[in-house]
Amino acid sequence: MGKKKEQDTRFSKFGTVSFTSITKVNDFVEYLEQGKVMGTRCKNCGLAFFPPRADCHQCLGSNMEWFEVTGAGRLVTYSKLEYAPVGFGEDLPYAIALLDYGDYKVFGRIAGDVPESEIRVGMEMKTVVNRLPNGQLNYVFQKA
Amino acid sequence: MGKVGIIGVGQSAFVRGYPGSIRELAFEGFKEAMQDAGTTTKDIGASVICSAPEYDKQRSPAGVFAEYLGLTPQPTFYVESLCSSSSMGLRLAYSLIKSGLHDTVAVIGFQKMSEISSAESQERMGRGADIQWESPFGTMMPAYYAMYARAHMEKYGTTPDDLALVRVKAATYGQINEKAVYRKPVTFDMFSDPESPMSGPVASPLRVGDCCANADGSSCVIVANEEKAKAFAEKPVWILGLGAASTSVNLAGRDLFTGLSVAQQAAEQAYKMAGVGPKDIDVAEVHDCFTIAEIMAYENLGFAQPGEGKELIKSKETYKEGSIPVNVDGGLLSKGHPIGATGGSQIRTIVLQLRGEAGDMQVKDPEIGLVHNIGGVGLYGNVTILGR
Fold first, then answer.
1. Is residue B165 part of a domain?
2. Of B285, B292, B254, B270, nearest to B354 (Cα)?
3. What is the pTM of this model?
């Protein structure tokens, strides 16, 4: 009987329900634990990726460095859900949204404490780490 | 190289809770298309089976269907591109025939969505997006399309009332389509009536009335080379143009949120191949999984300038008597949207229109028709142009 190989399943902590447990960018979750939302940049050609990737499709390199998503992005669009897929009902209501940071965009949720009446397409928002009631980690958008 | 023609079309009724298994469901659309074409199973050189996976227990449905439909020992293929699977299947059939590998191919689309609950279905459909980076936020199709609706409203002043008009048109024709799942009338006032289910919020700014219904259904399109098409069909309908495109699955990788880039690109390819333009289209089927999707389709197909799609529905130009009739069979909104069967059903509608056999839904003497079929949230786009 050989020793069972340890698997790095940190990514299963991402989001209310994660559908992925093993990825080469598992450190993303480690950074979330530290309060940082990180993307990757190709060390060969400089292309920035969010969400982070392990491999660059532009130069086919796999030599990446992490960078932090900082400052404000512009709200491109959003939708507030009154109905949720299986596994997300406890989170209702919540809004999914997209921020444009110029070099990259970030898809996520708007923080639950931002009133819908204050949400405007085009407004500046920042991306911050959020711990969910079930102990999982994600990130949300707050007014900048 | 000769032309490629459609010699037979069929579909099951689109229903809730089909009382049979998936192979029996597939048989219904297949039988109608085979009888329409006047072909026997010996005439079919290959089959292409199309659906979105994860609704059924059955893995690799192609082999099971080929056996049940009597299409063995001919080769069979399984094609999936979510909601545009059977348009992609038609593209494969076209290339199989053009290559000379096969003379005649049956494209069979199906989906039995009622195997699972509506909330489970939303979860499955949501996983047609980016499961690593988006699904953990609790995404679903209506919310993604709602994000496009919001962006369109912000940029162009499109309103929820404009969207409601699309649903009213769909219901106008759904009532006269005996194969549609939703056959009740829908009025504009229902959208502002809190008592009406149409007005219920789903994902802002979309309401229940803006969303198509899940359904069980099957469709079948029999495709043949020019020689066989002329031999079998009195009125073959020719495939004049085909376009197909894909884009980033994650919205973060996209630049356009007021339209679907895959539809623009697929349309451009199809128009070029057919040697026609938007003004030449006499009747169209577009992928109205949500009302906003039809408005964006008008613009992405060139029926209207960007931002002016709402004017087409307001002026009723996309009604049967208008300058460019769209979805005069009820569309996905009223007909229902059994994922893998939808493209084949759209193709069937246009084929019947071009043959002058669309009954109460018949548009006056159309010569060229177009099918716009989208997979996922604008992840895959197929545009097909057909002519007499």
1. no
2. B285
3. 0.96
